[in-house]
Amino acid sequence: MTSVVYRGESLPWGEVELRRCFVPVFNRRFLQVGVWVFMTVGLALSAQAAGFNNASLKGSYSFLTNLRTASAGTPQFAMVGVMAFDGAGNVTGSYTSVSDHVVQSGPMGGTYSVKSNGTGAIGLTTPSTAQFAITLHSTAAGVAQGVQLLRTDDTNNEVVSGTALLQSTATGKYTVASLKGNFALQYNPWTDDASLAEDGGVGVFSFDGKGNIKGSVTIMFGGSEVGGPFKATYKVNSDGSGTISGIGKHSLQIAFALNSVVAGQAKGLQFLDTNTGDGNGNLVITGNALKQ
After folding, report:
1. What is the mean pLDDT of the segment spanning 17-29?
2. d(CA 120, CA 135)
3. pLDDT digits (tens, 9 = 90+) for 194-251
4. C-alpha 12: how far from chain center
5. Whether 44 contacts 50, CB under 8 Å
6. In terms of DSSP bridges, do strands 241-247 and 252-262 run parallel, antiparallel, or are they unpaired?
7. Minimal CA–CA distance to 258: which of 171, 167, 184?
8. Handedness of CA 257, 263, 265, 269 (dihedral sign)
9. Which of 151, 164, 101, 163 is nearest to 124 (CA)?
10. Rounded to an integer, what distance in angstroms lies between the CA atom of residue 153 and that of residue 133?
11. Cα 117 from chain centre
12. CB under 8 Å to 125, separation ≥6 — which residues?
């Protein structure tokens, strides 16, 4: 039988012809299968990404926003609270804000819309007019577990942004018993006042479910490590907002909002210091805590 050299091998002529026919066919079929798999995955991802609407944002969410500015003439600003979305384009809630040592609180409300790709907008009319661009994330069972927030109607050289985290899709009536256990905390100040020492802290809140706190904190203040144990008290409003009073020798006051509620127990909270009196007023302190 006649042999020929094919790709470095000495093979019978018939086998050479078989390989010449089979390899291109195999390659074409492999390419076709690859294209089919790629298109199937692409279509599946497109279908998944196109599934958002107003119903994807439903339930109560804790939120925290901060203003960032390089202007010493513009006081820092921060707001914490609860937003309740009805799944049909309406939002209500409550807030606490601080700016230039002034604390304000009250109801809030407006409308919202969600696009098919998970972006959207919130238009607040109470307590004042404000527009936010939003992006949903961490969707489970068709509902976003979190929302990124960016204010879009502030034309000054400053930015207001933040995050909202799901409390619960069901209407809840929260109490001090909803906040129980050890929570890891972290906070940072926001200021451009050069006369103030930079500081930040980490630590633990230990809530007893009855309105009392024992905790400890490690703080870096002006380049030195300070801190230690503390005691305080807390209250929780029915909508999941609340307050902490009496932390440390300065008797710090904190406004917070619960989030990630499972079986009636909060797994996290966002907070804002409401009695900061240092410096020229261009200072706010905000943070978050997660259950251990």
Report:
1. 46
2. 6
3. 788 888 999 999 999 999 999 999 999 989 999 999 999 999 999 999 999 998 877 8
4. 68
5. no
6. antiparallel
7. 167
8. negative
9. 151
10. 10
11. 18
12. 109, 110, 111
pTM of the model as a whole: 0.81
Q: Are 163 and 182 in contact (CB under 8 A)?
A: no
| CA-based torsion, 220, 221, 223, 226: positive or negative | negative
Average pLDDT, integer, range 93-109: 94
Kind of pairing, strands 90-99 and 77-86?
Answer: antiparallel
Average pLDDT over residues 99-122: 95
Residue 147's nearest CA partner among 20, 1, 270 is 270
How would you class 81 by CB atoms within 10 Å of its CB: exposed for 0-12, middle for 13-18, buried for 19 or more?
buried
Structure-block tokens of residue 235: 């209250």
Q: Which amino acid is at 63?
A: F
Backbone angles phi, psi at 44, to 5 degrees: -65, -45
For residue 14, give the 3-state DSSP assignment: helix
* Distance (Å, whole) CA 12 – CA 3: 4
CA–CA separation, 65 and 286 (whole Å): 9
Which amino acid is located at 161 in the chain? S
Element (H, E) at 27: helix 13-49
